[in-house]
Design brief:
four-stranded antiparallel sheet; alpha/beta; single chain; six-stranded mixed sheet; about 290 residues; Rossmann fold; about 20% strand
Length: about 290
Amino acid sequence: MAVVIDLKEVSKLFGFGNATVVALDEISLTINKGEFVAIMGPSGSGKSTLMNIIGLLDRPTHGTYLLSNRLVSRLRPNRLAKARRDHIGFIFQSFNLLPRLTALDNVALPLAYKGVTQTKRLHMAGAALERVGLAEREYFYPKALSGGQAQRVAIARALVNNPDLIIADEPTGNLDSHSSKVVMELLAELHSTGSTILMVTHNPELTRYATRVLYMHDGSIVHDESTRLGEIPVRARSGGVEWPKSDEDAQLEGVSAYLNDIPARKAPARKYITKKSKNNSKSKKTKSKTKVQA
């Protein structure tokens, strides 16, 4: 199987001297053509930095990166931009559509940078919008689209160049549950046609669409596992940092905590009443002694 991404001991450092921050710590990763890889991890674990390097938006400080067997470090800036434009499609959480362009023009924009004639690029953009079910929204501006529709336009823009790799950074982060399912089904359809997809997500539910899940922590990949389509890995529910308990154990712990918490809530009230009653009785005895002495 052809290798699309090959990272060897890649590190990324920010700052210098005592202020140096290690964003990526000697990561080695190989992704084959046709894989759907989900990346999970807490904020600050290095997910975005890894995506920026794989997407050719940034360069590693150390290590080597081969994209489709081409050594990225040897590419000049103009060749780097061309490789990013022609071989990688981006889907962002915030859509990143240009507000003054229609859906059709937004999708056709990458083709304009590529030098495709206007007639051909509008035809290709229209076909991409039809593929995501938005043929009737070609001339709508982004402000007239729902969040789910705007993200589908972004997907059409990502696939209009027929890229080798699609990078999706929290593609459902700003969507409701229904729109999220529509977007994920579109990505699943793209995957079924042979596209390689790399997706960052915090939502364990979305890992059911992936064939492989990576878990990052402190700039390193701490777990890497293959999964079956339609199944959510047990480790994904905790972000992969710790081994979670089974559903049954978790339910039993929940019941136990609930039962233990009920007496704990009532105990202070009973203790308070008892203490108050003792104080009242002591005060009554004191008053009675005072009367006798008088």
